[in-house]
């Protein structure tokens, strides 16, 4: 397990095809930050890969970033861990904006349940 600090937060490589993403409190993800995020994933993970998005902090996306975040074809699945109703609403908005992308994405309240789901779809955890 290796942890990396990026402009917007931290990415923890759990294995070659799974990363946990923690965006810092108060960040507004824009297109430049999404490109930084995607470039990091492509350089450090083996495709297809899955993501564990830990929404323990409050942050937002510009509309352009919301659309761009769903464009990385190498992402197999996304498990989002939410702790607040605000995180749930923000995640649901992101999913709705990208409904044409047919994402394999689910929301969980517990990290363990999210990891169980990722393991069920065939990603080693």
What is the spatial order of strands in the main beta sheet?
Answer: 1-2-3-5-7-8
* Poorly predicted runs: none
- CATH topology description: Transcription Regulator spoIIAA
CATH architecture: 2-Layer Sandwich
Count of alpha and pi helical runs: 4
CATH superfamily: STAS domain
Pattern of helices and strands = EEEEHEEHEHEH
Structural class: alpha/beta
What is the domain tally? 1
Q: Determine the mean pLDDT.
A: 93
Largest beta sheet, briefly? 6 strands, mixed
Tell me the fraction of residues in β-strands, as a range.
Answer: 25-35%
Shape by Cα distribution:
globular
- Per CATH, the class reads Alpha Beta
Span of the ends, CA to CA: 11 Å
Write down the Rg.
Answer: 13 Å
| Relative helix content | 25-40%
Multimeric organization? single chain
**Number of beta-strand segments:** 8
In brief:
The chain is an alpha/beta fold and 125 residues long. It is built from 4 helices and 8 strands, in the order ββββαββαβαβα.
How would you characterize this protein structure?
The chain has a single domain, classed as 2-Layer Sandwich (Transcription Regulator spoIIAA). It is built from four helices and eight strands; from the N terminus they run ββββαββαβαβα. It has helices at residues 31-44, 63-69, 85-97, 111-120; strands spanning 2-5, 9-15, 18-23, 28-29, 49-55, 60-61, 75-82, 105-108. α1 runs parallel beside α2 (63-69). The protein is globular, with a radius of gyration of 13 Å. The relative contact order is 0.18.
């Amino acid at each position: 397990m290796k942890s990396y600090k990026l402009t917007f937060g931290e990415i923890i490589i759990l294995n070659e095809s799974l990363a946990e993403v923690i965006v810092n409190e108060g960040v507004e993800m824009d297109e430049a930050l999404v490109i930084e995020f995607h470039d990091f994933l492509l350089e450090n993970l083996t495709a297809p890969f899955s993501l564990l998005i830990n929404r323990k902090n409050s942050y937002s996306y510009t509309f352009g970033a919301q659309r761009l975040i769903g464009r990385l074809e190498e992402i197999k699945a996304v498990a989002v861990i939410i702790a607040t109703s605000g995180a749930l609403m923000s995640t649901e908005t992101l999913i709705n904006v990208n409904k044409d992308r047919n994402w394999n994405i689910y929301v969980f309240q517990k990290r363990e349940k999210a990891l169980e789901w990722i393991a069920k779809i065939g990603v080693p955890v």
